[in-house]
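Subject: Interface between my chains keeps coming out wrong

I've been trying for a while to get a sensible model of this assembly. When I model each chain on its own everything looks fine, but I need the whole thing in one frame so I can look at the contacts. Pasting all components below, labels as-is. Any help appreciated, I'm running out of ideas.
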Amino acid sequence: MSSQFGQAFRISTWGESHGGGVGVVIDGCPPRLELSEADIQRDLDRRRPGQSEIVTPRDEADQCRILSGVFQGQTLGTPICVAVMNKDARPESYREMETAYRPSHADYTYQAKYGIRNWQGGGRASARETIGRVAAAAVAKKALTQLAPGLEIVAYVKTIHEIKAYVNPETVTMEEVESNIVRCPDPAKAQEMIDFIKQVRSEGDSVGGTIECVIRGTPAGWGEPVFDKIEADLAKAMMSLPATKGFEVGSGFAGTRLRGSEHNDAFVMESGKVRTRTNLSGGIQGGITNGEPIFLRIAFKPTATIFKPQETVTVTGEATELQARGRHDPCVLPRAVPMVEAMAALVLVDHALRQRGQVG
Amino acid sequence: MSSQFGQAFRISTWGESHGGGVGVVIDGCPPRLELSEADIQRDLDRRRPGQSEIVTPRDEADQCRILSGVFQGQTLGTPICVAVMNKDARPESYREMETAYRPSHADYTYQAKYGIRNWQGGGRASARETIGRVAAAAVAKKALTQLAPGLEIVAYVKTIHEIKAYVNPETVTMEEVESNIVRCPDPAKAQEMIDFIKQVRSEGDSVGGTIECVIRGTPAGWGEPVFDKIEADLAKAMMSLPATKGFEVGSGFAGTRLRGSEHNDAFVMESGKVRTRTNLSGGIQGGITNGEPIFLRIAFKPTATIFKPQETVTVTGEATELQARGRHDPCVLPRAVPMVEAMAALVLVDHALRQRGQVG
Amino acid sequence: MSSQFGQAFRISTWGESHGGGVGVVIDGCPPRLELSEADIQRDLDRRRPGQSEIVTPRDEADQCRILSGVFQGQTLGTPICVAVMNKDARPESYREMETAYRPSHADYTYQAKYGIRNWQGGGRASARETIGRVAAAAVAKKALTQLAPGLEIVAYVKTIHEIKAYVNPETVTMEEVESNIVRCPDPAKAQEMIDFIKQVRSEGDSVGGTIECVIRGTPAGWGEPVFDKIEADLAKAMMSLPATKGFEVGSGFAGTRLRGSEHNDAFVMESGKVRTRTNLSGGIQGGITNGEPIFLRIAFKPTATIFKPQETVTVTGEATELQARGRHDPCVLPRAVPMVEAMAALVLVDHALRQRGQVG
Amino acid sequence: MSSQFGQAFRISTWGESHGGGVGVVIDGCPPRLELSEADIQRDLDRRRPGQSEIVTPRDEADQCRILSGVFQGQTLGTPICVAVMNKDARPESYREMETAYRPSHADYTYQAKYGIRNWQGGGRASARETIGRVAAAAVAKKALTQLAPGLEIVAYVKTIHEIKAYVNPETVTMEEVESNIVRCPDPAKAQEMIDFIKQVRSEGDSVGGTIECVIRGTPAGWGEPVFDKIEADLAKAMMSLPATKGFEVGSGFAGTRLRGSEHNDAFVMESGKVRTRTNLSGGIQGGITNGEPIFLRIAFKPTATIFKPQETVTVTGEATELQARGRHDPCVLPRAVPMVEAMAALVLVDHALRQRGQVG
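Reply #2:
Try treating it as a single job with all components included. I did that and got this:
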């Protein structure tokens, strides 16, 4: 059950980077949503390689096909299978991976776990696996449009290494995010980030950063304590993405440096609605949304693949040295932005349906 | 399904702070483990109120009873129900909560979600809920002793507000943690923390901090990509605890400021075993343990209950002011240490059994 | 996960016949249902031993207590724990079971599975386990009253050994069922059955039969193909009850002797509603309710406990002979009627909530 | 979650009869099993249309493709996706189904449930859906070969209408079953059945029957009481197949006519192993296998599609008449034999892995 996510809107992803293809099956999608392959392709294009000069130059079209669950342009309520066939890649690029473990990749752990691994391009541990998530999330967003009209999910690059953008999460738009190739809505910092990523790449190195995600317009009442608190599910969702090392909601780690009298969000009435004067809670209290914006920050480590020689061991336990060849992302964050958005959408739609199921 | 956790070792917790009692049902526990109420009580005593001068003075014995699943001192493989009956508390202390929402508590969100709430003492949102988790984890630890002899889970207070302890996670012991009432294994900083908590309490305020948790001795191969990666399940586990706002594994947010060449953990052979020279991965690669120690850090916000007047609204939407009365923790961290340990144990036992099921 | 049932309205039962007690935790119950211990006790009393002269004379009050999830007489939406404490029984009655396996009981298989068993009174395999199911179903029925007003579940004894009752399932009422101690709404046959059961008991033997269950008033649209078809979940529910050996829906096994032209249910309009002229489908088509009454029949084998010497083996593999002592049911069917009803209610409420979740 | 089956070996099927294709994703398969498309194709060919003169003459090759989870001929432990693309069918054959509900089909109930349906060829309710199940079961059988060497599952047609075969379930082989097109291992009765099916078809009518399934060679100890008893999971598995109306295990409904003294299976030692002298329990006691052969019988109703005019209503509620055209099975049983086998294999592998997970 390792490759399933969600309770009510449950997705099952499948596929290795080098094999027949990758995809997803969605079970529990509400019926009668308008859905086309173009709806899904739009988001897949935002995560695909080759889309800009700061991501891997590998050129994969990642063309999706809906194989089931849709009839005459509408969802049927039955399982939706979306597949992206793999194009034949360059397996020869990966020969060294057959015999040695790449540092800080999953080669060794997959071998230790299963006693076998698809060593071509990372196999199941490749970020190519996230195609299924992004495809499913495109469907989730369609459902959310009906379940919570006005709900918006906007993710963006907040920091790259030491470069930090200034962004107003109350107002930031996806258009601003998409206005540059690093997906940072602070234009000046975006340019700095782009230049820095290029420089790091030219040095054969890689770099990480943080993505912030804001969710505006959720109704109060989503979240299933005590274990499926909405921040717990969001944390799991984000920490299941490749390369993530940290997760924060609301005040996050910085909130540990405040006193209760500074941190508490006073309640006030506003246009007949219960609101909070501040929002250090980040839109969630007791694991349930309170209607205020939800703020998340996710830490992504620098890409493990670098073009410098690295010390490692072979599958038979001998010391050796590896140096990456081929085409890789010097920084995963620009392509991770739609992945973060996708995981947020999958959590939200699941909780929306669960709430409707139990409470009506 | 909000109150269930785990796939193979599945727990179902139940209970409000003021009601018949609280407890847990464990389904899927391996048979023939030695288990007594004393085994469970030991951990419950570490999380109970009234245990020291820096936690709430409320005096609850929290005496547990095993109602099923154990016969002649051994687990049967059938569901284990552990219950702690509530003693009659002081409902009159909570009268104001019936009519107004406490800031940064779950009063408003529970009402918004369910249209009803048990307003006595926080109900299901009370930290009293964690008794079931800690009880279940005492059983999980028994199972882990067999499944992974030598495995150790040690959690401790790493920071309180701005005070930061120096701790060597490779060697820290539970004895060091338990040697003082704040559960910080750096004695000098522990004293500072205790003094600071007392001062904050005297001001009617509260304070937060971070807990670090180290897991030593896991075999390589635990974790279920792509969604049930072990760090994803740990993140969910920790973020489901009351008052948590952030989670890190390995290098965490600080890792975003390193380059790949600095962050990657070189593989080396050591006594015939694959090891890593550094451990910025924090013992997990591709969502699967690699046998190195796992490091986690969890952010806890300052307790929402403070003894200062706060602005809020009534259930009928009128502005009002609330000031806590009664007995409360000025800082949740000392009592949260066994909760963090508990959640780690629950994740580990679940993954151990899942790995055994699929791979043998 | 052996002791959990349901997806949206999920119950976790616990308890052995001789131990602290038995009970259930319900997760996912809709909030704001009126619920009292008396509501639950009513159904528990219908399944308890000692209720009539044809069931076991063991006198257990089976008094339930709601430990959580209810506040001021209403469900909270949080887990509801219901417990029935065991009174100290006569363990000495079971000494022989420690050393030998009772034929057609679960003694041997539990030992083979877990390497341990609670040999006192059947342990987890005792029908006492069904207390948790019946208690949960009392809550389920409360929810169904809101989710599908007018829905009725009526179960009754249809056959005992060769004695077959004549019952009109379209009109039979629970009052008719409860009018006699064998729970058969055909008064003449009921008396025959009672006399026969008494005679069989006097011979130290036991007897089985079939229970029919009719569900009237479901809306069209419940059931989750392709695996959680409503008849599939009903089959699982019934076949999980102790002593069941067969399950039928609609035309059942007899339907295999008809041709398609005889078996098909023609559609007709009736008061603006789609109805079927006949109902050999038994209210279900393609795994989904069509609004017509659902008919089920469940086969119960004769009670395994008999007062005659039987050939068996000891736990150490030696041939021996066993003869039951103590107090037992000569026929489980009268007490199984509320169990069948209970399992039907649990399936229906789960599907009602799932349908509401996905489709609204 | 309607299209998922299994806990540890979990399958997710997808696909409509007329759409992109049908298939399955298997999550939790043990790694390092030899697996090829030919292994799967063998079973798919046994369920495909057009295979003999007594099934539908529709000629679909149903060629499968493994899209993930297998590398160099071995399972990886990652999700296995198997797909069969649909060839373009004759949608014009189904035009009438757009506007009217076929009697005893799922047209009306799907519409009532989802407010939409794929009316081409039955959509998700078509037996074509079982391709995913049969494909997954081919993988399950590979796993069972390792988990329980010697385990055998043999299903066969036991009755067609009033014609009943004589079969010894202790010794019947798959070769005997496959020796004729009706899949009945009693050659004389098989011929009678074939002749009868042809006659019924020539009359434009259809016919049902029962399939018996015997499972030999399970170890003692599989099954997860109290809800996931192995007969409960088998019942659900079988009752989720299209056209099933009844399920029996062991003595079944006939067992209700025996007394306890006749029905109980005495234990005896045989070659150092606990055996039963008789096997009315059908290999299962208390929901757990006892090592004796498991016997199941499943009732299949006559095919709903018949070539006679039938009374029905249109989607707008007007009375009309329908008469099937095109190519259909006059009797589903020959093609249902591999489906029954498949469902048995899926239940067994799931329980084998669950038992290994919990007990080791």
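Reply #3:
Confirming on my end. Chain A touches chain B through 112 residues (CB under 8 Å).
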